[in-house]
Amino acid sequence: MKNFNWLALGFLAPALIVITVFFLAPVILTGIFSFTSMSTSTGVTGGEYLLNQSGLRALADKGLNQTTLDQLNNAGYVVDEQGLAVLAEKHGAATADEMRKLHENGQFSARRDMERALKDLKANKIRSTKDRKAAAELFKHSLLNERFETEAKFRTALVEGDIPTEDHEIIVTQAYTGWVWTTDNIKLLFSLPSTLRYAGNTLIYVTLTLIFNIGFGLFLAITTFYLPAKSASTFRAIWFLPRILPPVMYVLLWKWLTWDTGFIATTLSWVGVAPKNWMLDTSTHAWVVVVLINGSFGASLGMILFSSAIKAIPSSILYSSEVDGANRWQQVRYIILPHLRWPILFITSYQTLSLLTSFEHILLSTEGGPGRATEVWSLAAYHIALDNYGGNLQYGLGATFAVALVIIGIIASLFYLRFFNFNEMVAKPKIEG
Fold first, then answer.
1. Fewer CB within 10 Å: C terminus or N terminus of the chain?
2. How distant, in Å, are the alpha carbons of 89, 90, 136, 168, 254 from that of 107?
3. Please, which pLDDT band fits residue 1 given cuts at 50, 70 and 90?
């Protein structure tokens, strides 16, 4: 028995590896990223310390006093080896050596003081005022726009710049360019005005498309069931085309149909209707097209599964109902639909989860427009994390949007299992009890 268990585990191992690598790992990593500030500006591997003008403005907004801000903007002058080397290149080694003897490692808070130090040179004077000002700039130390690889080096630069110790923490935090652990993404998710709009758009999209998918799929399956076999196969093949066409080609056909130079606009222009883009001219038209695109695509899968389930119903039951005088509607209501509870549960759950997370047809058709009217939750997560209009891809915030979708999907699945009474559906038949 133990050998059998190990053998079964060996056969299941490839599937378990695939599930772990391609399902569990991405979900877990997405959950981890949602608690970070990762973005294009921070990178994903850590960061350096860089203070620039925008950072100074942010520090000012956070209440850093003006004196410290001025010190950061002009941290002072230090007679160091780097400056002395450049001085030697411009004014000779003798000048640099004399400056080293007089003021090595000397610190000066203003350029005027630095120029006075240069005037102390006796044997190698820099006589021109213009040249002394230029030479003074060689020793200027500013914390702005200078990258520091580690926090220790940045803190050392703050000390050398005589920045007050009590201001170091807020400056170090602001200057760090890497990502940090944070819960701000969750707070932002619930505070953004656009979040409610995305949720509402998703509810509209999933509800309308799901009704179309299930309803039209059932209609196609039932109507073709009562058709002759060849005619039924032909109709099913036609309605299955959206499923096998590449999404780009499929959406392009809809665009050709609805463009201002497309089929609908051209046909209506013959009766005096002004040409317009029937997909994007209003939000209502955009939603109609989005639902039709995704509905036609999803209904084909429902049609195939429902048709197979109807064919699996014992023919004796249908023949008996006809003998008892049942018409077509009564057969559908009392025989076919009760036998389709399992397929309807599967299609409803599958399509709900698929619609919650899919956005490719909306992206290719309306791109969330007009005016973000069809921007659903998953498309917003894509735009935030991978295709941000502002150019700064916010991986952490996008991951938070994605995690919310996972939670909503789990809740929806539990609701469907309860609504369709899953426990009763998998219960042992009463005749075996």
1. N
2. 22, 21, 12, 20, 71
3. very low
Q: What is the model's pLDDT at position 381?
A: 94
204/67 Cα distance (integer angstroms): 54
How far is residue 368's CA from residue 380's CA, in Å, rounded to a whole number?
A: 8
Residue pLDDT, tens place only, 221-244: 999 999 888 888 888 888 888 888
Q: What is the pLDDT of residues 163-181, one digit of tens each?
A: 888 999 999 988 898 888 9
Rounded to whole angstroms, the Cα distance separating 384 from 379 reads 9
Q: Tell me the residue type at 335.
A: I
- Distance of alpha carbon 71 from alpha carbon 62, whole angstroms: 17
Domain 191-427 fold: MetI-like fold (1.10.3720)
Give the model confidence (pLDDT) of 400-415 as tens digits: 999 999 899 889 888 8
Spatial CA neighbour of 308 closest among 232, 407, 228: 232
pTM of the predicted model as reported, rounded to 2 decimal places: 0.77
